[in-house]
Specification:
The structure is a single chain. By secondary structure, this protein is an alpha/beta fold. The protein folds into two domains: about 5-125 and about 305-320, Nucleotidyltransferase, domain 5, CATH 3.30.420.40; about 135-295, Nucleotidyltransferase, domain 5 (2-Layer Sandwich). Helices cover about 45% and strands about 20% of the residues. It contains eleven helices and ten strands. Strand 9 (about 265-270), helix 9 and strand 10 form a beta-alpha-beta unit. The two termini are about 30 Å apart. It binds 5'-O-[(R)-(carboxyoxy)(hydroxy)phosphoryl]adenosine and zinc ion. 5'-O-[(R)-(carboxyoxy)(hydroxy)phosphoryl]adenosine binds near residues 186, 188, 273 and 275. The site of 5'-O-[(R)-(carboxyoxy)(hydroxy)phosphoryl]adenosine has 19 residues, from helix 5 and helix 6.
Length: about 350
């Protein structure tokens, strides 16, 4: 069944985006036939961050319509699918349960194999949806919930080289933006505010810069708050630009160091923070200087999406077979085979 061409419905509900995609795979090469994403940004904006209960309810309300829209765009019905892949964690467990239960229902009703997918494995695979990237490559995964440097040798063969010891990079953007009154989500707001600011106006600390491959953003966030409290008249454009420069400096330095340590030929950015203008620019510059092949996936493939879940699901189905329908949702699910 897993030979030749297969068509997989992917479902992703681990945070604040309800996503479904239909992906056709031929010997592992993926073609995204459709991708539908319903963002809940407006529902959470009022609270300055993702409210898990609101997220779970919104997933319940939209998942069926989103899945059907994805199928319709692909010109298919449930009967045309070869399998269903749904995120089983890590993430906000209420939302994960919604998507996984929906996937189980489709699998049961249509007699299809279900694959429970690790969200991070999806991100690791996402880079290869739009480009032929040779394994092994180094993945800098920076989003609201994750901040890790992974060496990806293949599906199910990831090695974590470094991660944040406190806040994820996107979380730091969101918290600082909220403090500055720039709204939610904070990353794009800071990106915009920084355009007219001076990145050298304030020298914010770069924690653990000379210290391995882990990162820390909690002290930076506190330092921004202390600075603004001490200097209430400071330009928020300068604060945003200086804060952004500090985060990007740390991320690019660590990614370069990791690439050098493992002799990586390819360096890939993924996760919502990969949409950051300064990070994209400095990441590519660094890759040119270091002679490394730098990949910047489209923003749609960087942020949470269901195509990456379908693709990772196909690989898992091939290697491990279907997941039992009594499988659970796990908020802290670890990538299988992660060392
Ligand atoms: O990957 P994603 O959509 O969801 C998670 O898995 O978290 O990432 C969302 C995060 C948020 O923290 C958001 O503020 C950040 O990505 N983000 C950005 C930008 N766009 C989104 N951070 C910095 N600059 C941006 N342009
Ligand atoms: Zn994610």
């Amino acid at each position: 069944m897993m030979q030749g061409t297969v068509t997989v419905l992917g479902i992703e509900t681990s945070c604040d985006e309800t996503a479904a995609a239909v992906v056709r795979l031929t010997d592992g090469r993926a073609e995204v036939l459709s991708e539908h994403v319903a963002s809940q940004t407006e529902e959470h904006a009022l609270y300055g961050g993702v409210v898990p209960e609101i997220a779970a309810r919104a997933h319940v309300e939209t998942i069926e319509a989103i899945a059907e829209a994805a199928l319709a765009e692909a010109g298919m019905g449930y009967g045309d699918l070869t399998g269903v892949a749904a995120t089983a964690g890590p993430g906000l467990v209420g939302g994960v349960m919604v998507g996984l239960s929906f996937g189980k229902a489709v699998a049961l009703a249509r007699g299809l194999p279900l694959v429970a997918v690790n969200h991070l494995e999806g991100h690791a695979v996402s880079a290869r949806l739009g480009a032929e990237i040779a394994y092994p490559f180094l993945l800098l995964l920076v989003s609201g919930g994750h901040c890790q440097l992974l060496e990806v040798a293949g599906v199910g063969a990831c090695r974590r080289l470094g991660s944040t010891i406190d806040d994820a990079a996107g979380e730091a953007f969101d918290k600082v933006a909220r403090f500055l009154g720039l709204g939610y989500p904070g990353g794009p707001a800071i990106d915009r505010e920084a355009v007219n600011g001076n990145p050298e106006a304030i020298h914010f600390p770069r924690a653990m810069m000379n210290d391995g491959l882990d990162v820390s953003f909690s002290g930076l966030k506190t330092s921004v708050m202390n600075h603004v409290r001490k200097h209430p008249d400071v330009s928020s454009e300068d604060v945003a630009a200086s804060f952004q420069a500090a985060v990007v400096d740390v991320l690019v330095t660590k990614a370069r160091r990791a690439a050098q340590q493992v002799g990586a030929k390819g360096l890939v950015l993924a996760g919502g923070v990969a949409a950051n203008s300064l990070l994209r620019e400095q990441f590519l510059d660094a890759c040119v200087v270091d002679g490394i092949h730098g990949f910047l996936p489209s923003r749609e493939m960087c942020t949470d999406n269901a195509a990456m879940i379908a693709a990772a699901g196909w690989h898992r189905l091939r290697s491990d077979g279907p997941t039992s329908l009594d499988c659970g949702a796990f908020p802290n699910l670890k990538i299988p085979g992660l060392t």
